[in-house]
Specification:
The chain is an alpha+beta fold and 423 residues long. It has helices at 21-24, 36-39, 41-52, 190-194, 197-200, 223-231, 236-239, 243-246, 342-373, 385-402; strands at 57-61, 70-76, 79-85, 91-95, 109-112, 116-118, 125-127, 132-134, 171-175, 178-182, 209-219, 252-254, 261-266, 295-300, 304-308, 313-322, 325-335, 417-418. The protein has two domains: 57-171, Rieske Iron-sulfur Protein (3-layer Sandwich), CATH 2.102.10.10; 193-418, Naphthalene 1,2-dioxygenase Alpha Subunit, Chain A, domain 1. The strands form four sheets. Strands 11-17-16-15-14-13-12-18 form an eight-stranded antiparallel beta sheet. A four-stranded antiparallel beta sheet has the order 4-3-2-5, with no helix packed on it. A three-stranded antiparallel beta sheet has the order 1-10-9, with no helix packed on it. Helix 6 (223-231) crosses helix 9.
């Protein structure tokens, strides 16, 4: 027995501390998170409420919303949101619902808005700061005949004040290359959730990168399996024969500070193999001696993978669709000062191809795990503490939020330490 309760669990069990007793033990004694956390629709809905609607969730690359009017419609915690850059350069986030009759304003995905957000139902319009402009007729493309426009004038409507009918806002913030939103009206600042991660990555000048390539994957697995697979080196020799050549096991380090993230490091990274690698572009300038030869990896709670290398960034945004389905958007970023040319494009293509290969290998294995977790014979497994401490940290963050506990985990005493010290 691993200490986890027998399956299947009822929804009320997901809100009780004793359900997670085996995962709350120190990592050297702990068992994995209950399998129902990956398979149960009831757990998924509670997780949307208690994790995704209370956390800062990364939803886009900042360079995807760089110019005035750049807009992205995305979903967090089951809620549709509009992100838009205003003419003054500010970033805004709004719930994607008209204040009149509740119509969905914009369709999912990116678009560009000139001046307004207009409801397709009755043409109520809002500026890019979310202010209600009132009823129709705000631009020349209104299809109401000029002799009938007075019908739509609301200046004489009793107790109607446009300032009371702006779009419902959500908290939005930027750090480095990422845009975050938070649905909690009482959210603490993003900096509290990130902890010391911005300081640890400051040498990479994280706000100077632009998205060069993107790709979306539909994955038949729970988002946590994607994250937990990213967090550990245990599977590399068997799942990633190409990756282990450029990220050798002996070069792996613990790299964990305080914050809602799990961190690790490969240092030094190795040269490309015949299967590709990470060195297809030149490194950025002014890196420290350690940063110049290292790859930093962080899973930013709850659903973002951040890989930081001397010459590029690779980001995975995991968007939960249901308990067994995740839409994963990947972004390959290069430095904003990188010169253009065929050699650079070829280098970017090489990096994109290498990451795609690695990602597809991961997808195959996490989908296999998702299928296995459906077996009622499996109630959880013992953690391999040397490799799986980041999983233990992450799973306990999830448990905290499921139980309504707000805390930011501490980090290691050492800034960085070898996982497999050489004798």
């Amino acid at each position: 027995m691993n200490g986890n309760p027998p399956r299947p669990l009822t929804a009320d069990a997901f809100l009780r501390e004793e359900t997670y007793a085996a995962t709350r033990l120190p990592v050297s004694l702990a068992s994995t998170l209950i399998p129902d956390a990956y398979t149960s629709p009831e757990f998924f809905e509670l997780e949307q409420q208690r994790v995704f609607r209370t956390s800062w969730v990364a939803v886009a690359g900042g360079s995807q919303l760089a110019g005035p009017g750049d807009t992205l419609v995305t979903e967090v915690g089951g809620q549709s949101l509009i992100l838009v850059r205003t003419a003054q350069g500010a970033l805004r986030a709004f719930h994607n619902v008209c204040r009149h009759r509740g119509a969905r304003l914009l369709d999912p995905g990116p678009c560009h808005l000139k001046r307004i957000i207009k409801c397709p139902y009755h043409s109520w319009a809002y500026d890019l700061d979310g202010n209600c402009l009132g009823t129709p007729l705000f631009d020349d493309d209104s299809h109401v005949p000029s002799d009938q426009r007075g019908i739509f004038d609301m200046t004489d409507v009793d107790r109607f004040d446009k300032s009371d009918h702006g779009l419902h806002q959500a908290a939005v913030a930027e750090w480095g290359p990422l845009v975050f939103v938070n649905l909690d009206p009482h959210a603490a600042p993003l900096a509290e959730q990130l902890g010391d991660l911005p300081e640890r990555l400051s040498g990479y000048r994280m706000d100077e990168w632009r998205v060069a390539r993107s790709r979306t994957y539909e994955i038949a697995a729970n988002y946590k399996l994607i994250g937990e697979n990213f967090m550990e080196y245990y599977h590399l020799p068997w799942v990633h024969p190409g990756l282990v050549k450029v990220s050798p096991m002996k070069a792996h380090h613990r790299w964990q500070g305080a914050g809602m993230y799990t961190g690790m490091c490969t240092s030094p990274i190795a040269s490309n193999s015949d299967q590709g690698g990470w060195l297809d572009l030149p490194p950025i300038s002014r890196l420290s001696e350690n940063d110049a030869v290292s790859a930093r990896f962080a899973w930013v709670f709850p659903s973002t993978a951040l890989s930081v290398l001397p010459n590029h960034l690779f980001i995975m945004l995991a968007h939960p669709v249901d308990a067994a389905h995740t839409r994963e958007e990947t972004l390959l970023l290069v430095h904003q000062d990188l010169a253009e040319g065929p050699d650079v494009e070829a280098g970017i293509d090489g990096l994109a191809s290498f990451w795609d290969t690695v990602n597809r290998e991961d997808i195959e294995i996490v989908e296999r795990v998702q299928k296995g977790l459906g077996s009622l014979a499996y109630s959880g497994g013992r953690m391999c503490y040397r490799f799986e401490e980041p999983l233990h940290r992450f799973q306990n963050m999830v448990i905290d939020r499921m139980l309504g506990i707000r805390r930011v985990p501490e980090g290691d005493e050492l800034y960085e330490s070898e996982m497999f010290p050489q004798a």
